[in-house]
Hints:
- The protein has helices spanning 29-45, 111-125, 129-132, 151-159, 161-167, and strands at 16-19, 50-53, 80-84, 87-92, 136-141, 171-174, 181-183, 194-196, 202-208, 211-217, 225-229.
- By secondary structure, the chain is of the alpha/beta class.
- The chain has one domain (10-229): Metallo-dependent phosphatases (Purple Acid Phosphatase, chain A, domain 2, 4-Layer Sandwich), CATH 3.60.21.10.
Amino acid sequence: MKDLTKGTSFSSLDMVIFNGDMSTAIYNEEQIFTDFMDASVELFASRIPIVFNRGNHETRGPYADFLMNYFPLNEGRVYRTFNVGEVAFLVLDCGEDKPDSDIEYSDIADFDAYRLKQAAWLKEAIKDKSFINAPVKIVILHMPPEVSDWHGTLHLDETLLPLLNEAKVDVVFSGHTHRYSFNPPVPGKIDFPVIVNSNNAYLKCEVVNGKIQVKILGTPGSKTIEHNLN
């Protein structure tokens, strides 16, 4: 993280968003700090807010149930909405990409039911005036919709994607695949672009007067990718 963000002016940012898989699995409290929080505090987190979202890997491990205690939320849910300036943010929790019967869980988890519960919440959340009236709508979701063909992503496409199309969101920021991709809208399937960030770059987003500018930045000297949306 320190090498990746050399030259970044954190003081100019409103927040830093972690969009999942900051850890391979969660085994204990110490690991949360050694994996990413100690570096975050040294770089920015004593002054700049963190928005934390889970990836599928953070649902794994004996300490995974306690992870969100370190990023407490008023509603007690990982998935939520919030507004900053002209932007409505919608944070969605992907759950696991594997079936609940996989060896990682052996039927002791139920992420399909969890995603159905989240979809019921989302159906109401996108009707809220603070979301509807926001000029810009950005979704934070670890597993990209309409990109992967594994169980969890397909279930997200079935349960959440129709509601996101209905919500008229501007862009979804995702990760998960460990490689960058820009996925434009597909008529009849998905009404918005999905930007997938890699595991060795970070995404910088600026919103000015309703316009979204995105830069994908790697280590110093690497190629910068830019997108101007809507």
